[in-house]
Amino acid sequence: MTRRSIPQMPIYFQAVKEVSASKSGILVLPTVVALTISLLFSGSAMSIVGYYTPFMVLTSILTPIATGLLTTLEVDAVLARLICYHALFGFGCGIGYQGPQSAAQTVLSPHDAAIGIALMQFANSFGPAVFVSVAQTIFTGRLVADLEAYVPRLNASSLVKMGLADLKEHVGPENLAGALLGYDRALMQTFYLGVGLICLSLVGSAGMEWRSVKQKKV
């Protein structure tokens, strides 16, 4: 899940917040740190509680909220909001990440569990490969439309093709505010795809069988 949203955030940091590429990488760290913490927490909690389904449902609740909050980011969003939203997103993704694998190992036979885990690994690779490209297409299309709306005197197609570092110099100080607003709106509209996809995960989580990992197979 994280790979569907994170690739767009460096664009937000560099184009909208006007930070360097290295600093934009640092600003994404709250997601990674929260994800790591939640993975460790969920692994321990799952072994204590015995059930994986609650953690999967919790992921399907927290991540749509976090992704929805990301769609509200504005040009002048304060750093504290960015850190909180990223941390919530990372924690939400990690809390139920191990659930499907635990379910396969608990419910399926040893032979079928290997097949189930292989299918999940395929889906984890196939999904981002498809939808990151879809998100990029949406972003490019919305960016052209939004730039034409907010900066009608500039050639929007040329802005899309140029590097983020050249944006400020190309548009000029008089058009910079409109260009930043166009980038911001295009990114936030792209995040709607992530919100929709993550909401769909609730269907699978709610339909999971409640089986304890402590229960021995017979």
From TrEMBL:
<feature type="transmembrane region" description="Helical">
    <location>
        <begin position="26"/>
        <end position="45"/>
    </location>
</feature>
<dbReference type="InterPro" id="IPR036259">
    <property type="entry name" value="MFS_trans_sf"/>
</dbReference>
<feature type="transmembrane region" description="Helical">
    <location>
        <begin position="51"/>
        <end position="71"/>
    </location>
</feature>
<protein>
    <submittedName>
        <fullName>Uncharacterized protein</fullName>
    </submittedName>
</protein>
<feature type="transmembrane region" description="Helical">
    <location>
        <begin position="78"/>
        <end position="97"/>
    </location>
</feature>
<keyword id="KW-1133">Transmembrane helix</keyword>
<dbReference type="GO" id="GO:0022857">
    <property type="term" value="F:transmembrane transporter activity"/>
</dbReference>
<dbReference type="GO" id="GO:0005886">
    <property type="term" value="C:plasma membrane"/>
</dbReference>
<feature type="transmembrane region" description="Helical">
    <location>
        <begin position="190"/>
        <end position="208"/>
    </location>
</feature>
<keyword id="KW-0472">Membrane</keyword>
<keyword id="KW-0812">Transmembrane</keyword>
